[in-house]
Structures are given as C-alpha cells and as structure tokens.
Design brief:
Number of strands: 17
Largest sheet: 5 strands, antiparallel
CATH class of the largest domain: Alpha Beta
Number of domains: 5
Strand order of the largest sheet: 2-1-5-4-3
Shape: elongated
CATH superfamily of the largest domain: Histidine kinase-like ATPase, C-terminal domain
C-alpha cells in the first residue's frame, strides 16, 4: 500500500481545504481528466491511422488500376502465372539434398511433367488471348493439349532460369488453340516480393514467327547467291578449258583426216584414223556440253524422242558395265517428243547412269529405266514446281547403297560429291538440274540407306503437226573443191599447219600467218589476189574481229570466215549480223571446212 509523503498530504489538504473539496474527490477528478486526455490522444491517433490506411489503400487502388490498364491494353502479350506449387516442390527437393536440378529432371522426366502441370495461368491480357485464339484466361489452360512435343525441355530451361536468376528468356515453338504454329520469344520473371513463393510470375510473349521466316528466307537467298557465284566461276573456268582443249583437238582431228585421204589403199591405217577422228568428235561434243552448261554456246533445241536416246545410252553402257550389274528397261514403242538438245540428253542420262554404277559397283545390282507419258494436274504440278500439262516421265532406278536425308539435301549443290577423290567432281547432278530446268522440266529423287535410289525426271511434251526426220546428207558425196587464194590466220601454229594441209588438199592456194598484225600486212601486199580470209577469233594483240574490221577498210568486198572454239562475244547469228559470211566452230572437220569455204566463196 502506497502512502503519500506528509508534505504532499499537507499540500493537497491545504488546496482541498482552500477549495472546500474533499481530497479523495480531487484525486478522482484528476484521474478522470487524465483518462479523457488519453482517450482524446487515442482517438486522434486512430483517426490519423485511418487516414494513412485510407490514403495507402487509395494509392494501392490507383496503382492497381494503372497496372490493370497497362496490362490489358499492352500491345505485347502478357500473362500472370502462379508457380507457388512448383516452388514448394523444388524446396522439398532441395531439402532432400537434390542440388543438380538439370540432372534430376533428366533422370526423372515424370517429375518435370508434374511440375509443368502445376503451373496455373492466373491472368492473360487481350493481346495474349488474341495470339492464342482464347476467349478467356481460363481457356489458356487448354494450350497444353496442342503444344509441340518439346515443350517439357523448354519448360525445364525456364525453370532452371527462375531458380538461378529469378527470370528466363527462351525461344520456342508454340501453337494456338486453332493449331497454328508460332515461333515465340518467352520471357518470365518473378514479381518483386514473391521471390520466396513464386506465387506471381510475369510472362511476356513476343511473336517472332515472321522474323524467323524472313531470316530463313535470307539464308536461302544467300545460299542460292553463293551457288550462282559458283556456277559463274565454273562457267568462266569451262570457257578457258574449252578454248585450250579445242586447240589441242584441232590438229589431232585434222591430221587424222588428212591421213585418211593420203592412205586410201591402207585399210588398217584408215581404220585407226577413223577411230582417232571418232574419239576426237566425242571429245568435241564433251567440250560443247561443258560450254552449254556454262551457258556459253547456243543449244540445238529440236523435237527429240527420249526413248531413242535411252536405247542409245543402254547400247553404249551395256558392254562397259560389269556382269554383276543387270539392265532392265520398260520403254514404250511410241513416246511423245520433247524439245531438247540430243547431246544434252545423252549427258543427263549418262550422268545418272554413272552415279548408279558407282552405287552398285561393290555388290552389283540392277539398273532400271521406265519411261511413260503422264498428265499433271494443278496439284501435282505445284508439288513439282512446274506448269500443269503433259510430260514424259523417266524413272532411273538402281539397287545400290542409297542415301540418307542429309546427303539428298546436298546432291544438287555444285562441287558436292560422295565419291572418293578422283572419281567425281560434284558437278554431274548440278548440270542435270540446270539442263532440266532450262527445258521447263524438273527432277525428283527418292532414296533410303540400303534401299537404292531413284531419279524421276519430267520433260514437257511438244505437240507436233507432223514428226518427220530431217533428210540426212549423203556422206559419200565428194567434198566441194576450189582453186581460190585464201589468207589463213591462227596464232596456234599446229592448227594453222593442219588447216593449211586441209585447204591445199581441197585445191586452194593458202597464205598462212600466225598473228593478226602479220596477216594485216600480208593482206595490204596481196589484197588484189586474196579471195577469202579465214581468221581465228581469239588471238593476242589483234583479235579476229579487229582484223576483220581493218581488212574491210582496205577492201570492203572481201569475204571472211571466223573460227572459234569458245566466245561470249560472237556466235553464228551475231557473226552474220555484222557482215561476216561464214562461222566455223573448232575443232574444224574437213567436210565442214570444205562446204563452208565453198558456200562463202559462191555466195
């Protein structure tokens, strides 16, 4: 029990006595005043607290309203996800001592699938709903039924990113509820304040389908550009090789023909010479094929029976194939004609036959040819990227080792080859593809490893009013001769010598020069006695065309024949257009030379 000090009692008593108030009542009044003051203080504090709470709530409501406005009207698809159940599961794994989640999910894919099923989409804005074709955020849960099969692997990447860095950024394929494929960039981040629970994870999704498509197209265009540049380089190389090779062939062929003329009574020697001439002609045709591939000579496009070409190729290759490789063919008696160059068709079929032989040379097999006329409707022609209509379809099939998909994707690329070094250049199928597309046709390939390969070729049919074979020249008729004076110019002495021998055998008088300047000087001295100029087109210092122009200035009525093995500047049509009367392709055959010279002189 507390007792007031005597002095205090005395003071209070004096005050109470002076106010005529009982001391006990005074204490009661003082206590009531204190209580009232305390209550007033509490009321004031409570009002301030209510005001603070009210202002805070209002600010939160305004912030939430602004967030909702931005969320709903954002042009970027946004979603809000709840991964709290997933976080609880991961915490349990950590408590059990699982430190490497990547390896754990690789060993336990069912746990990863269970985690993916735990994710709940709380909300999605209008852009997200429109992207996926959903009416409400709840409908977004149906996406799991249409998503691609690799979504679990992508979800694992996102999950590991959230664990390590609190966010992730991945590119993956999605599908809409309609099944349309999308390529999206998905970014996920745990909301501030929810790092421990993952109850709120914000996700942005950007549709990059069009950008990916454009990137792929750009890569495709770059690849085609590189292929075009390769083909241009091959064309330039082919032109140079053809020019040099023709210069080598010309004296071989010419001297063999001269030996035929000079040894009329020596049958064995004549037979050898004929073999040399025929081999040289095949080499000449090969050079022409190379130049055709490089687009540097005119093609001789005529109506051709493909079945006849196939029979010729079969007859040519049958003796050269080993006995372990059999040939089967199914060719119609009458097949529609196609517009093509017969030499090119030989080249196409021989390339494919050569590839088939290399595929079967180890274990043997069968080579099959099947030819038929077909009509392609719009759908079939679109699949083949050619126009609808009638086509001749040739199927060349072997039973060799076949190809995998990666190899099939590259076989038409220049320089690509599966053959050992020394057995292939990688240009055969590129040439075949270029020739077919030049005719308006197409080629397809079917193959499987160990199951053989089939090439299917399509050639557009040409409708002919009357298919008649051109009349063949009588090769036994005597060659036209003459006695005129010819100025012959060629920088290759071997070619000049053999051409001189040919012309002299035909009765002509020949003056030879091996440079354009020497020929011009000779013509100035002999202009009134020269009847014809035969000049090589490609010569150093002064070309055949330059020599032609200078000589025309001296004597405008002089007749001229230009010889060339390769030229991007001049062909037979352009030669005639500038006034050149004759045009000969090297290597020159005696019969062609005789007829061309006589035709120009008599013309």
């Amino acid at each position: 029990m507390l007792v007031a000090p005597p002095a205090l009692h005395a003071g209070v008593g004096n005050a109470a006595s002076s106010l005529n108030v009982n001391p006990a009542d005074f204490y009661t009044i003082a206590g009531l005043v204190a209580v009232v003051l305390l209550l007033l203080t509490l009321v004031i504090l409570n009002q301030r607290k209510k005001s603070i709470i009210s202002n805070t709530s209002k600010a939160l409501e305004e912030t939430e309203a602004r967030y909702r406005l931005l969320f709903e009207h954002s042009p970027i698809p946004l979603m809000e996800e709840d991964l709290s159940t997933v976080k609880t599961f991961l915490d349990q794994l950590r408590a059990q001592g699982v430190a490497d989640l990547h390896r754990y999910f690789a060993d336990n894919p069912e746990s990863l699938a269970r985690c993916a099923a735990m994710v709940r989409i709380i909300d999605a804005n209008r852009a997200a709903l429109a992207m996926y074709g959903a009416a409400t955020a709840g409908a977004m849960g149906q996406l799991t039924s249409v998503l691609p099969d690799d979504q679990l692997l992508q979800f694992k990447k996102e999950l590991l990113g959230l664990v390590k860095e609190g966010g992730s950024e991945i590119v993956l394929e999605n599908r809409t509820l309609r099944g349309d494929v999308l390529t999206v960039e998905r970014r996920a981040v745990v909301a501030a304040g929810f790092e421990q629970s993952w109850r709120k994870v914000f996700v942005t999704i950007i549709d990059i389908t069009e950008q990916v498509r454009l990137r792929k197209e750009n890569k495709s265009f770059e690849k085609k550009l590189q292929q075009t540049q390769k083909l241009e380089a091959i064309g330039s190389l082919a032109g140079g090789i053809a020019h040099d090779f023709n210069n080598i062939l010309a004296p071989i062929m010419g001297r063999a023909e001269l030996m035929l003329i000079e040894n009329a009574d020596n049958a064995p020697l004549r037979e050898h010479c004929r073999g040399i001439v025929e081999a040289a002609k095949r080499a000449r045709d090969l050079v022409r094929q190379i130049l055709t591939f490089s687009r540097q000579v005119d093609q001789e496009i005529t109506p051709v029976s493909l079945d006849e070409i196939i029979r010729e190729v079969i007859g040519l290759v049958r003796p050269t194939l080993p006995a372990t490789i059999g040939i089967e063919y199914d060719l119609p008696d009458r097949c529609p004609r196609i517009m093509a160059d017969a030499t090119q068709l030989h080249q196409v079929i021989m390339n494919l036959v050569t590839n088939a032989f290399h595929a079967m040379e180890g274990n043997g097999g069968r080579l099959r040819f099947h030819l038929e006329a077909v009509s392609l409707d719009i759908r079939e022609s679109e699949d083949l990227s050619i126009a609808p209509g009638r086509y001749v379809r040739l199927r060349i099939e072997d039973t060799g080792h076949g190809m995998d998909r990666a190899t099939m994707d590259k076989i038409f690329d220049p320089y690509f080859t599966t053959k050992p070094r020394g057995k292939g250049t990688g240009l055969g199928l590129a040439v075949v593809l270029g020739i077919l597309r030049g005719y308006g046709g197409e080629i397809r390939v079917e193959s499987e490893v160990g199951g053989g390969t089939a090439f299917i070729l399509y050639f557009p049919v040409v409708e002919l009013a009357a298919a008649r074979k051109p009349a063949e020249c009588d090769r036994q008729e005597p060659l036209p001769r003459g006695t005129e004076h010819i100025l012959l110019v060629d920088d290759e002495k071997s070619i000049a010598d053999v051409t001189t021998g040919m012309l002299e055998r035909l009765g002509y008088k020949v003056t030879v020069r091996i440079s354009g300047y020497d020929a011009l000087e000779a013509f100035r001295n002999l202009s009134d006695r020269i009847d014809l100029l035969i000049a090589d087109l490609s010569m150093p210092q002064m070309t055949g065309l330059q020599l032609y122009r200078e000589i025309k200035k001296i004597r405008s009525d002089i007749k001229v024949i230009i010889c060339t093995g390769f030229s991007e500047q001049l062909d037979s049509r352009s030669a005639r257009s500038i006034g050149i009367e004759g045009f000969l392709n090297k290597p020159v055959v005696l019969s062609d030379l005789a007829r061309c010279v006589r035709s120009v002189l008599d013309g």
